């Protein structure tokens, strides 16, 4: 009995696998750096370690970016419609909640697959440095884009 | 005995010894040789399910059903996967088909009992498990389920009786030992409850029931950990979506309160809210790690009562 039978959730080694990371880092990236890093990172990670639901995860991540822009447009139209100034920061909380919901959703989808990847000895890297660098160094640069167009707020 | 049976036998023994991954590897070997064995696909599906590999379990159960649509084992595996997916009506339909395929099999009756419990009909579940017990009186899985259910219904004496029956058949039956632990806990005998939990964990450190039991014991002894455990148990019962909704809701409330107190000029109160939120985050973030370390330390220095 030497032939091997492969289960669908078992990792398929790829050249990208050593660039994969624990999904907790893209989740934290959403909190410390923003959606601009977190959502593409989730999508990339899905392909890097060969997540069994990588198609779905990519769709959620990319669709999530579109959904964030839609929500922001909606909020801007509400704010433009003349709501009291004090309520703006409360309304923008909805955007933050949407970002966190997307990140948690992707985290829960990706975690079991990543656990399999590490179980089979798959390589990965520690995302802490990237989260810190993105949070402290890159986030202020991305924030400057809001001066260019307010829609960049959706990516923060 | 052919090689397939030998490997399957070994796999089942691995499973009973609390080594599902070893069992999975053996099942894979068998399927590498004969990918059309529906029973092995079904057993593999059930094993994958026990390790929470739902995606793979679903595909394996589907393959088993495709190969043998009337196989009781394949139907049972598919029903268990459906329960894990929270597809209760599909699970019910599959379990009913499994009962029809083999009325003398206790396994689908256990599934029907699980479904009844999930639907809030524990009395129906007890009847089903008693029927299963009538079919297979020495099936410790059935007895374990029944003891656990009775315990959940507050029928401590009956639960103890059934658990003791199971232990007289299989002295190391983990689920029944856990039920006995809870019985002792309810009677305030923390040491005896502790012995049951540690015994199970020393054989299978990931046994969910034993971890719950030792957590309940710890919770009685340490109020801070007890608080974390109650929070954890409550969150576990919510399911993944529920957890995310609660977390987002809590975050929303925290932000609104923090913003409102700041807007209204209550600077100190606003700072207090921020500190409290940070405390909650730290508590829920480090709680599991601290708890796990305590359990590991406990299991590492297993000291059972000499009379255990």
Biggest sheet record of chain B: none
- The number of distinct β-strands of chain B equals 0
Shape of chain A: elongated
Record field, number of beta strands of chain A:
0
Choose one word for the global shape of chain B. Answer: globular
**Beta-strand content bin of chain A:** under 5%
Alpha carbon gyration radius of chain B? 23 Å
Strand content of chain B: under 5%
What brief labels describe this structure?
heterodimer, A: 156 residues, mainly alpha, 5 helices, elongated, B: 308 residues, 15 helices, 0% strand, globular, disordered C terminus
Can you tell me about this structure?
The complex is a heterodimer of chains A (156) and B (308). Chain A contains five helices and no strands. With 156 residues, chain A is mainly α. The relative contact order of chain A is 0.21. Helix content of chain B is 82%, strand content 0%. Chain B has helices spanning 3-16, 20-33, 38-50, 54-67, 72-84, 88-101, 106-118, 122-135, 140-152, 156-169, 174-186, 190-203, 208-221, 223-263, 267-300. Chain A binds chain B through residues 1-10, 52-53, 86, 89-90, 93, 96-97, 100-101, 104-105, 108, 112, 116, 119, and chain B through 3, 7, 21, 24, 28-33, 35, 48, 52-56, 59-60, 240, 244, 247-248, 251-252, 255-256, 259, 263.
Give the topology, please:
The complex is a heterodimer of chains A (156) and B (308).
Chain A: H1 24-32, H2 35-48, H3 54-80, H4 88-119, H5 128-148
Helix pairs in contact in A: 1-2, 1-4, 1-5, 2-3, 2-4, 3-4
Chain B: H1 3-16, H2 20-33, H3 38-50, H4 54-67, H5 72-84, H6 88-101, H7 106-118, H8 122-135, H9 140-152, H10 156-169, H11 174-186, H12 190-203, H13 208-221, H14 223-263, H15 267-300
Concise summary:
The complex is a heterodimer of chains A (156) and B (308). Chain A is mostly helical and 156 residues long.
């Amino acid at each position: 009995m030497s032939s091997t039978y492969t289960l669908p959730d078992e990792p398929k080694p790829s050249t990208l696998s050593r660039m994969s990371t624990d999904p907790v880092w893209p989740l934290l990236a959403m909190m410390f750096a923003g959606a601009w890093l977190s959502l593409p990172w989730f999508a990339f990670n899905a392909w890097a370690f060969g997540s069994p639901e990588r198609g779905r995860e990519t769709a959620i991540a990319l669709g999530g970016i579109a959904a964030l822009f839609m929500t922001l447009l909606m909020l801007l139209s509400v704010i433009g419609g003349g709501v009291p100034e004090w309520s703006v920061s409360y309304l923008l909380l909805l955007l933050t909640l949407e970002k966190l919901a997307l990140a948690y959703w992707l985290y829960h989808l990706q975690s079991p697959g990543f656990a399999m990847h590490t179980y089979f000895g798959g390589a990965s890297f520690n995302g802490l440095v990237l989260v810190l660098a993105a949070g402290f160094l890159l986030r202020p640069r991305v924030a400057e884009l809001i001066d260019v167009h307010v829609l960049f707020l959706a990516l923060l | 005995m052919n090689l397939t049976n030998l490997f399957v036998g070994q796999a089942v023994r691995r499973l009973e010894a609390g080594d599902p991954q070893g069992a999975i590897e053996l099942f894979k070997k068998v399927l590498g040789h004969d990918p059309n064995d529906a029973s092995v696909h079904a057993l593999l599906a059930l094993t994958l399910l026990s390790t929470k590999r739902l995606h793979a379990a679903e595909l394996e159960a589907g393959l088993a059903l495709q190969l043998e649509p009337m196989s009781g084992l394949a139907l049972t595996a598919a029903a268990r996967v459906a329960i894990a997916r929270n597809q209760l009506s599909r699970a019910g339909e599959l379990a009913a088909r499994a009962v029809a395929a083999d009325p003398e099999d206790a396994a689908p009756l256990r599934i029907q009992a699980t479904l009844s419990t999930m639907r809030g009909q524990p009395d129906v579940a007890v009847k089903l498990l008693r029927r299963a017990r009538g079919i297979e009186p020495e099936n410790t899985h059935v007895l374990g389920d029944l003891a656990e259910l009775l315990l959940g219904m507050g029928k401590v004496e009956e639960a103890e009786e059934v658990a003791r029956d199971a232990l007289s058949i299989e002295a190391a039956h983990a689920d029944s030992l856990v039920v006995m632990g809870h019985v002792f806990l309810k009677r305030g005998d923390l040491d005896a409850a502790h012995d049951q939990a540690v015994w199970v964990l020393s054989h299978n450190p990931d046994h969910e029931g034993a971890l719950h039991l030792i957590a309940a014991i710890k919770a009685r002894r340490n109020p801070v950990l007890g608080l974390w455990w109650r929070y954890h148990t409550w969150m576990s019962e919510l399911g993944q979506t529920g957890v995310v909704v609660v977390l987002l809701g809590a975050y929303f409330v925290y932000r609104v309160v923090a913003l409102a107190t700041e807007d209204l000029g209550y600077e100190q109160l606003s700072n207090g809210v921020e500190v409290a939120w940070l405390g909650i985050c730290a508590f829920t973030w480090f709680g599991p790690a601290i708890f796990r370390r305590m359990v590991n330390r406990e299991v590492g220095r297993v000291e059972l009562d000499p009379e255990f």
